[in-house]
# Entry
Amino acid sequence: MPSTLTAAFRSLSNRNFRYLWFGQMLSATAMHADMVARSWLVWDLTGSSTSVASVLVARAVPMLILGLIGGVAADRFNRRKLLFIIQSWTLLMHTIMAVLLLSGRIELWHVYVLAFGLGAGMAMNQPVRTSIIPNLVDKKDMFNAMSLNSIAINSTRLGGPALIAILIAATDVGWAYVWAAGAFVVVLWTTTKIAIPNIVSNLPRGNPFSQLIEGFVYIGQNRVILALVLLGLGPLAIGFAHQVLLPQLVAEKFGQGIGLMGVLTSVGAVGGLTAGLFIASRRDMNYKGRLMLFAATSYGFALLGFAGASYLWMAFPLIIWIGASQTLFRAGNSVTLMELAPDRLRGRIISATLLDTALSPMAGIAAGIVADRHGVSAGYMLLSAGCLAVVALTLIIYPRIKDL
# Structure
C-alpha cells in the first residue's frame, strides 16, 4: 500500500506541479462552494429546477465563446501571467457575491450576472491551466499528473459540499462565498510560485480568429480527436447536468433539504477519489478507449438508476458510481487528447473540450423542464437516454475508439 500511494502521488515531487496542484485543490473548494450555494439559493428563491438550470446556462454562455478564445490565448501568451489575471477576476466575482448576500441586497438578476462572470473566468482558466501541465512534468508522468488533477477536485468534494451546506444552514449563503473568496486569495499566491521552464509563444502574432479556425480544422480532420470530443458530450455535458436536479430530488423524492443535498454531493466524491487513486497508481493505461466507453456507458445507467430510486439508501451507491465514472472518463479523455495534440495546438484542442462542459446547462434546461412538468424521475430518464445515445453515436462514427 505505501508503494502504491507513492506511485499515485509521484508527480507531486515536481515543485512547480505541486504548486499548480495545490492551487487546483483550492479553486475546486471554491467551485464546490459556489455550486452548492448557487443551486440552493436559486431553488429557495424560485422553487423551480428550470430556474436552477437557467442560471447554469448563464454561466455556460461565456464558456462557449471565451473558452475558445482562452485556447488561443494559452497558445500565444505567458500562461502563468494569464492564469494569475484569470484567477484575480474569479476572486472579484466571489467577493461581489458575498457582499450582495451578506448585505441583504441580492436579487435573482445579480445571480445571473455573476454566474456569467464566473463562467467567463472558468472558460479562460481551464485551457490555460491544463496546457501548463505538459510543460511541468515528463511525458511518462502525464497520466499520473492528469489523474492527480481529478483527485484534487474529488478530495475537496468529499467533505467540502457537506461542510458548505452546514455553514449555509447555520449562517447564511453569503458565507459560502466568503470562503470561496478566501480560497482564491491563496490560489493567487500559489500561482506566483510556479516557474514554467523555457516557455515561448508557439504562435506568431497573427490573426487570432484564423488561429482559432486552425484548431477547429485540425480537429475536423483528425477523426480520433473528433471522436474524443464527441464522446465527451455524454458524461461531461448530458450526464453532468444531473446536478440541476439534485435540489428537486432531495425535496420531492426524499422530503429533505440542503443538508442531504450537500451530503449526496460529498458522497459522490468517494467514487471519484477512489477512481482517481486507482488510475494515478498505474504507470500507464493501454486500454484508455475501453475505459472511456465503459465510464460513459455506466454513467448513463447510473442516471437511469436514479430515475427508479424509491428509497434514500439507493441514492448513495448510485452517486458514488457517478463520481467514479466521471473521474475515469475525464482522466482517460484528457490524457489521450494531450498525447495526440501537438504542443502548438494544445490550448485550442483543450478549449474545444470545454464546449462539452458548456453544453451541460443546455441539457440541464431540458431535464429541468421535464422534471418540473413530469417529476424528477422523468428528468433523470431523459439525461440517461441522452448519455447512452452519445456513446452509441460515437461508436458508429469511429468504432476504433475502443482500441486507443
